[in-house]
Specification:
By secondary structure, the protein is mainly alpha-helical. The chain is 56% helix and 0% strand. The protein has 11 helices and no strands.
């Protein structure tokens, strides 16, 4: 895969997302096997064409920055940068779906719907995005789909690849240049678990300050990241994992 290009060929594509599944794959949260299957190539231009018709230009630029940031962070931590690139490119496919559509697609696919999702269906856009990636673009790779699914709320026991995409969404250059963000960018290079922990705690502080509801997955991700950060305290680079 070459370096991401920011040019978009705005071709016309069918927007019918409930196509028959191209591959038999359930969006499982079970640990992945140690032996990986080869990564199926993704037609990046086809995805860009679809995105150009389904998200605003500003969001497309964000997606491209997340893709690039995920590649760099994965390479730095000796992770699979091609899987990181695919997940980064696909992570916001469902970002602009209407609440009713998000709930319908999630329920049709048998996803567990938390009461918080019913209150704020937008929180489902990551989980539904993985469904779209599978059904619209034939993505069958478990790690890529999990990274798409986990990029907003995280998930306890998520893989290092998921951590990379979760963080890339928060630290891509377009997010700003504050002291706090720059510190988080540095921390993301030093220790993925500590950076995930910091991101969750920053989000929770903001939600508490505005007296907003907190999705239980955010708290679960925070608690898991805290445990993992404590275990990895002796070394800055976490061990590779496919789980």
């Amino acid at each position: 895969m070459g370096h991401p290009s920011h040019s978009v060929d705005c071709g016309s594509l069918n927007d019918a997302l409930r196509l028959p599944p191209i591959c038999e794959f359930e969006l499982s949260t079970q640990p992945l096997p140690a032996q990986r299957d080869p990564l199926k190539p993704l037609d990046r231009q086809e995805v860009l064409n679809w995105l150009s018709e389904n998200v605003p230009e500003k969001r497309l630029n964000h997606i491209l920055r997340v893709e690039e940031t995920a590649i760099k962070l994965a390479q730095y931590h000796d992770l699979d940068w091609e899987r990181a690139a695919q997940a980064g490119l696909l992570h916001d496919l469902a970002k602009y779906f209407k609440p009713k559509r998000l709930l319908e697609l999630a329920k049709a696919d048998g996803l567990d719907i938390d009461p918080m999702d019913e209150i704020n269906p937008h929180l489902l856009h990551a989980d539904v995005g993985a469904i779209v990636a599978r059904d619209e673009f034939g993505v069958c790779d478990a790690e890529v789909l999990a990274a798409v699914r986990n990029h907003t709320l995280g998930r306890a026991e998520m893989s290092l690849l998921s951590c990379v995409v979760f963080l890339a969404d928060s630290i891509e250059p377009g997010r700003g240049n504050t002291t706090e963000l720059n510190e988080l960018r540095k921390l993301s290079r030093k220790n993925l678990y500590r950076a995930v922990l910091q991101t969750c705690e920053d989000s929770m502080r903001s939600l508490f300050a505005s007296r907003s509801l907190v999705h239980p997955r955010v708290l679960q991700t925070r608690n898991w990241a805290l445990q993992m950060a404590q275990q990895s305290i002796k070394g800055d680079k976490p061990k590779l994992s496919s789980a």
